Amino acid sequence: MSKETYLNIYKKYDLYRSDIYMLTEKKPAEIFFLFEEICEELVEQRAINRQIPPEFIKNAQLFLGQNTFINVYFSFIDNRAFFLSDLIDFLALIKSAKKI
What we know:
Order of helices and strands: HHHHH
Structural class: mainly alpha
Strand content: under 5%
Helix content: 55-70%
Largest sheet: none
């Protein structure tokens, strides 16, 4: 899995943008589903995930592990949207894999 795989997940939900938090009223279902799919990818043992700040990984693990505090926190769409927005901004900083 590469950075592009994450970006394709964002594109699948037509949320390939860093201002996802502006779309919480327009696309709430897409944000909820995108968040869950991104969390599932973040907990996988993949090379790209070693480049992502551990806070993203830990929150995804806690969310999928049904941590009460984290699940209540992420039950609010704004919190999911800001998480996704921060992650896509960070992914933009990761150098893309070069194809030879």
